[in-house]
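Late entry, evening session. Most of the bench is empty. Finally got around to the prediction I had been postponing all week. Sequence below, unchanged from the version circulated by S.P.
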Amino acid sequence: MNLQAIRRPTLSAGVLRAPAVGFVALLLALFAVAWATGSQLGPVAPGMHPGAGNPATVGEGGGHGHGAGR
């Protein structure tokens, strides 16, 4: 029996990995550009830190009057 006739043609692993490697390289490049841009521009809200200042209150005098139910 001839085994060459029975075998199916297979794709090489490099053909399947090439798009995945390109996609990961693109993600890394975009992340690097975003990181560099963010470090050049600085923080978006410099005075905004967790736990800093008075906590926001909801109740009398607070909010914008939405849903007052009058």
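Two things to note before I forget:
The helical segments are 3-6, 13-41.
The first helix runs from residue 3 to 6.
Will write this up properly tomorrow.
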